[in-house]
């Protein structure tokens, strides 16, 4: 049995990322014929076409799309193995791609990234902020910040800290509408719904005794970003449920009130997740360790 053509797999992953044989040749410091021969060699060994080619562009075939995650993993593992074999006194360098939620990225992650760049001047960071969850392997990310309960998956996870969630409203809203005493009371209130959850219209509220009350809140405002809810909540327009990093300043100032103390909607934590391979470039480990030590 012939050994896998690791070079061709890595070249395939780079061509798919850059969308060009010429750009791939430039990035890898190889000739364009070498790139073309590697792709043809891989297609021949697999017995399938990986790219559709025209005189103006290339695009992934259906087989290419299916095989691309494997190619990316092979390339990542190879790069990680090379870095692990280097003398640890060498300066860390190269790019790390990181994804994070928008609000947390702006308020908490950005200052830490600035400090990281000072500590590791040869490492470049590609930070993408989006409240939607990205596919790390499919989209080529080295790691991501995730807030909330993690679904079962093959991703490797580092728990940074526990977070608290609060049911909140402004004093002016409570004065007009009364303060809920039990979870079921929320059925009579205008609620703000965060839409980037598997079931945004379902609130499984865990009471202090551990029992769960399931409600379907009346939606007054719905958004895929928690930060944009704060002005309307502070203005007394409804009731929301937000993590501590978003609402703690308004709670401390009295602009918002915790209306259901000791109630929450399940485990809420700050995590760093990574692709499943145990092998990672040293620069990625450096960023993960730095984030783990400095994020709050």
Please sum up the structure shown.
The chain has 296 residues and is of the alpha/beta class.
Order of helices and strands: HHHEEHEHEHEEEHEEEEHEHEEH
Number of domains: 3
CATH homologous superfamily assignment of the largest domain: Periplasmic binding protein-like II
CATH class of the largest domain: Alpha Beta
Helix content: 25-40%
Question: How many strands in all?
Answer: 14
Low-confidence runs of at least 5 consecutive residues:
none
Question: Could you walk me through the main structural features you see in this protein, from its secondary elements to its overall organization?
Answer:
This protein has ten helices and 14 strands. The radius of gyration is 24 Å and the shape is elongated. A hairpin with a 4-residue loop joins strand 1 (about 50-55) and strand 2. The chain has helices at about 5-20, 20-30, 30-45, 60-85, 100-120, 135-140, 170-175, 230-235, 245-255, 280-295; strands spanning about 50-55, 60, 95-100, 125-130, 145, 155-160, 165-170, 190-195, 205, 210-215, 220-225, 240-245, 255-260, 270-275. It is an alpha/beta fold and about 300 residues long. Helices cover about 40% and strands about 25% of the residues. Helix 2 (about 20-30) crosses helix 3 and helix 5 (about 100-120) packs across helix 10 (about 280-295).
